[in-house]
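Reminder: ligand-aware prediction takes two inputs, not one.
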Amino acid sequence: MWPRCPLHGDHPLDIEPEPGEDPHWVCEKDAVAIAALGGLGTDRPPNEGAVEDV
Ligand SMILES: [Zn+2]
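Here is what comes back for the chain with zinc ion:
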C-alpha cells in the first residue's frame, strides 16, 4: 500500500515522476523528496534523520 509520510504521518506519500530522473516518494505537504522509489522500506532511507521513529 501507499507508505505514510515519515515527516507528518497523517497522509500518504506521493510519487513524483520527473522526466529524465528516477521517480521518488515526495511529501505533498512540504514538497520534499523522501526517498527514491524502491528505496523505501527495503533499506534505510537516505535521510534517516527525518524518518526517526518516535
Ligand atoms: Zn508529509
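The pocket of zinc ion is lined by residues 5, 7-8, 11, 27, 29-30 (CB under 6 Å). The CA atoms of residues 25 and 40 lie 8 Å apart. We will return to this case in the review session.
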